[in-house]
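On clarity, I found the account of how folds are encoded harder to follow than it need be. Since the whole study asks how a given chain folds, the encoding of that fold should be made plain. For illustration, here is how one protein appears when written out as sequence plus structure tokens:
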Amino acid sequence: MNSYRENVQSAAGNTLAGLYAQQQQLQSQNCSAQYSLYYAQGAQLNAYEGLTEVKQQLLASRLISEQGVACDNLATNLDASAKLVQQATATTVTNSASTAAGIQAAAKAISTLAAELGSALNIAAAACYGTDIYRKTLEANSFIRTTANHAEYITRLAMDAAAASSEVIATDLVNQSALARAALKTVQGAANAQFSALSQQVVAGQTTLASASNAEKLAEGVLEDTGREMRAINSAVEDCNRALNFNLIASVTGTFDGIAVSLDPYQQPFTTWPEGAGIHLASDITIPAANPEHYVFIAKAENAGSVKLEQIEALFNTEQTKYFHAVTADDGWQVVLPVSASGSAVADIDGDLLAAGVSYVAGVYVVLSLPYQKYINSFNNILSCVSLPVTLQAPLGQAKGIAFSPDKKSVLFTLPPLSEDITQQEFRVMLLHSGQPLTGGFMTSEDTDAQSGDAAIGFYFNKAIAEQVPGANYRVAHCSSTQLVAGGLERSMKAVIPDDMTDNFGALLAPGIEYLPVVLAVPSAININANAWSSTLAFGAKAETLIPLAGSREDAPVVAKAAAAAPSASGDNNEHPTES
């Protein structure tokens, strides 16, 4: 028959195991809810930006259609005017030709009369020189000569007018006007068709945005629910661990060089009685002191299910000093077990030295005094349930001073002296959509908001999500220069922003939108001990607009941009690949 202690230990183990399993399940659900919310917010942002772009196109199309109507009215008036010009030109050509012919006939008659008067003047000069007849003839000849000159000039003007009238290309004007009006009708029809299509796209975009907004709110609700469940299960695990498992907690040290284990000591039962309980022991009854001795051991998390009391007792009796570490009140009921790299030989119960990148659990073995065991008629010591798993991981180098270059064509940052070879790390530069363009109601991560500071991100984002961003949506930074500083080598890093750069959601960079640069440090593909390192996420201090809106002050002419981008003849490019 099992003893009371064995029953209690079995109940505690089953309870904690059930809570641990439920906790892991809820953690998985919470991670899934975070990813769902992230992608739902991305879909809503993309839908909003797409709708905004279509609305801008619709506005431009409407303006083009309105201008087309005005141009069509002008073309109609031009066509009517051209036809009137054609009719007037035909009449003018006919009249000017008739007028020119009449003037020419009159001019000929005047010329004939002038010739006859010239002959009469000759006769008068010969026969009647100095008489009144001669003077009158001379005066008439002067008048007719003037009239003949005027007639010649008028004839020339009439001929020029007739020629100029015939040169007016009224028919071509009518034809060109008709062609222009037909072409304008074609353009106007295309503009109207585009306006109708864009109107339908706006309606579809509004529907898509509404659906995306509903999906985002549902995802927020799911994450809030899983968050509450996570807080509840974490509280239950803490309470159960405190009440049934010596409040056993294993964690990584602040310097990431070992495992810190803390616990609450074993409390001997029935040492005191509640006041008024009515329990009075006989004077000759004495309960021996348990004098518990607490020993901490470490096991691999993958072998946690095989940790049994019989195994631990056998190891304790044979290899106490190798696998077990005493914990006393003098130590504050905690002990630090360093990894093998620190020089201390601390091993798990399998005989392997503690190493970074391996997941471990801690356990407590409590040895009771023999008199106490005899008194309670149970000669088994106490074995706790194992703690939650903990993995020894050191953080990778964190980027500092993240900012855009002056020309906004690259992201620059520095790396302090690293404890790990830089070739074992990869620095991913991402551009995050900054601000909330809708209503400002997106749920965000409190941890990320605290890290990003004033340049808050308008959507849910954290390190776990950053690690899942596809490779097409980030750029890998390389070392551009180095500088020797106190403590080691400081590196200046650079990531070029190409023209087809996308944000973290995979959308092309949009004009007028501010983007915040972030840098995620992860173990590189050639890192043979990637599990020993944890990734780090660093945020830039300021979000900036990379593509200005058309017509803004920042939208410089193409020639000016080309001149500003042209390198000087003496400029040197010191960028080089990541050094070994």
About this structure: The longest strand covers residues 514-523. Residues 69 and 210 are 34 Å apart (CA to CA). Residues 245-267+287-392 form a domain with the Immunoglobulin-like fold (CATH 2.60.40.10). DSSP finds nine helices and 19 strands in the chain.
